[in-house]
Amino acid sequence: MKIYYPIQELEATGIVTAGVSLRCGGVSRSPYASLNLAEHVGDDPNAVAANRALFFEQTGSADLHYCRQIHSTEVIDVHEEAPMIPKLRPEADALISARCGVTLGIFTADCIPVFILDVVTPAIGIAHAGWRGTFAGIAANAFTRMETRFGTLAANCQIHLGPSIQKCCYTVSTELLDQFTERFGSTVRNGTNLSLQAANINQLIEIGLPATAISVSPSVPPVARIFFIHIGLRTDKQAECSHLSDSTPKTKSL
């Protein structure tokens, strides 16, 4: 049984595996049934561990880095600051890396998972963008950190906004909607509802990302899924996924 679905727009590059875990195929019992990968929601730790083992086996991941998400603008280069499971997680809302074999992950419910792929370096980033993080510019911060750390250029990036709450159903206060409209423009408004997608797109375009490089998922996710992006060499376990190939430019010296 397939336990995740891929982000085709990114995997088509042949550089990364990127996807979204599903809720089926795991061992967790209700109300976490069944492929819950989050250890912080009250599920049985043994079930979470078993689910993660299944996830690692199917995706070819092993070196999974994630953080304690706090709706901030903090961005972490995982090789400087973020430990792997099961060590203490740092507080942040975006992770970046330019090393092969590394998987970056975030958990979301309604918030937007923002994937960033620099196809030339290559390098990857992933951000957790709720309304607070979006308003404060977490997606732009993640790109800027990649630009500073890895020399990432806007022209070399592909961005994907993963499954999240849509403008059809995200009703917010008039005050908040007015603040977003003033900051990001009228395209964020849909009646009394807010489009987090438009707000993130506009902030990325504002810092130089081409609109044609940004793709958006139209779907709404169930809770407690993990969004991940992985850059690495193909192995037997990764046969169904696209990874960094020998023809891909190698990571620049840092």
CATH superfamily: CNF1/YfiH-like putative cysteine hydrolases
Mean pLDDT: 85
**Which overall shape is indicated by the principal axes computed on the Cα atoms?**
globular
Instruction: Give helix % range.
Output: 10-25%
The CATH architecture name reads: 4-Layer Sandwich
The succession of helices and strands, N to C, reads: EHEHEEEEEEHHEHEEHEE
Distance between the ends: 40 Å
Instruction: Quote the CATH topology.
Output: CNF1/YfiH-like putative cysteine hydrolases
Number of strands: 13
Structural class: alpha+beta
Determine the strand fraction and express it as a percent band: 15-25%
Highest CATH level, the class: Alpha Beta
Largest sheet at a glance?
6 strands, mixed
| Total number of distinct structural domains | 1
Helix tally equals 6
| Contiguous uncertain segments of 5+ residues | 232-254
Question: What spatial order of strands do you see in the largest sheet?
Answer: 4-5-8-7-9-12
Radius of gyration: 17 Å
